[in-house]
Amino acid sequence: MDRIYEFLKAAGTYYLATVEGDQPRVRPFGTIDLYDGRLTFQTGKSKDVSRQIHRNPKIEICAFKDGVWLRVAAEAVEDERIDAQVHMLEAYPDLRAMYTPGDGNTEVFALRCGTATFSSFTAAPETVTF
Fold this sequence. Notes:
CATH topology: Pnp Oxidase, Chain A
CATH class: Mainly Beta
Number of domains: 1
Number of helices: 3
Strand content: over 45%
CATH architecture: Roll
Order of helices and strands: HEEEEHEEHEE
Distance between the termini: 7 Å
Helix content: 10-25%
CATH superfamily: Electron Transport, Fmn-binding Protein, Chain A
Radius of gyration: 14 Å
């Protein structure tokens, strides 16, 4: 889990894919946190990505850094605890201009039932489950 977190944090931007009906939707994300032993990310409940995850919690993440790419397939489940929101916004203080813990819009998702694969052109893929 730490390796996945460190990779995504160092990459800065990763791409999160959801499903809307039968259409994949992909967008850049930058929030990643380790909270209560789980990988988490943050968004707003007012956004399409939130509605898509609530309808179908299966997501994928892809990031690239230093010739290595990471793919994560998991289920995203909402962590409704205010403490999770506080932790995330402490890690990303720039978001405080748009989000406040407990504002009814700030939303943190935790990843579960995940498989992460580290790949490159120079080494065999490495897979981690969590």
